[in-house]
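Notes from hallway chat w/ T.B., transcribed later so I don't forget. T.B. wanted the structure written out for a chain they're using in a teaching module, and asked if we could keep both sequence and structure tokens in one place. Agreed to drop them here.
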Amino acid sequence: MRSLLVLALAALLGAAGAEAAHHEGIQAVRARGYLRVCADPANLPYSSRDPATPGFEVELARLIAAELGVSVRLEWHPTFVRALRPLRDGACELFMGLPRDLRFREGNPWIAVSRPYYVMRHALVVRAEAPYRRLEDLADRRIAVEMASLAEFHIAYRELTRGLYRTQAEAFA
């Protein structure tokens, strides 16, 4: 549980990083009585607006808030629409699941990033009879990916052709 608290504390520090800013951020959250957490409303298994299937990042956010002695207030922001804007503009103190990639953080020196709390890998999903087994095999094809996802960034940096979709379900369809 302490590692989850460290994640929340890192996010609350923001760009300042000083001990005073750290203390004031936590105190402000405790005085207010809730932690504002930005999450994507339709990004399972990570987050979902559906109370029946909230996603593991929503559940982790609730645990972090409980560790701080406050409730959680979810602020729904699709990650395909400028994911950092609500964090930068103060709509939330914590936005879980954003990449730690240095390229993502370039130009955003005001964010604080925790140690990774999970490792994710991507795999190609192709028809069984298809000859494609590696990304390089798809150099002359269009690859369906969800907009602003880590998969999209990975494909873009390899300069492969992307077919962008708003949701994972649309990409699979």
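Follow-up for T.B.: Residues 135-172 form one domain. Might be a good example for the class.
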